[in-house]
Amino acid sequence: MNSSKIKQILKTRTKELAEEPKEDESKGEYLEIIEFVLAYERYGIESSYVREVYPLKNFTPIPCTPPFVVGVSNIRGQILSVLNIKEFFGLPREGLSNLNRVIIVHMSDMEVGILADAIVGIRMIPPGDIQPSLPTLTDRRSEYLRGVTADRLVILDVEKILSDPEIIVHEEVES
Prior knowledge:
Layout: H1 3-18, E1 31-38, E2 41-46, E3 50-55, E4 69-75, E5 78-83, H2 85-89, E6 101-107, E7 110-116, E8 118-125, E9 145-148, E10 154-156, H3 158-162
Parallel strand pairs: 2-10, 5-7
Antiparallel strand pairs: 1-2, 1-8, 3-6, 4-5, 6-7, 9-10
């Protein structure tokens, strides 16, 4: 290529790059998802429900609670219940390690920690890419799914999980 042709290409590119970006018609049509791992499966929670992700340093078990309630933990001065949704969903149990993370989720006046084996990262997913629950998934998880992506990321419905009456423990111990 000669130098005048190269200059012309560079000028065209410069003009294109200098233009204001065109309004993206699909703007706002993506869900920001926090992706994490539970029992070697990938799950996601919409980031609008997530306050923060925090390493699980220690927790205090609470008697008379269902098996999926790990206990309570002091996270930045706030005492939060920590739930093991692997246990809630009946997934294979693995011992807690020092690599576990707590995803602090909230909805209206309720805030809890959800235990995750590992945090993968944040993804932007178009809502159209989320398919209904798999027909082969007939266990308890299917009730709490928003859907599944083509690459098998299971999106959880935080509102359904946190509004489940089983999550709220109203048990009293007789003295």
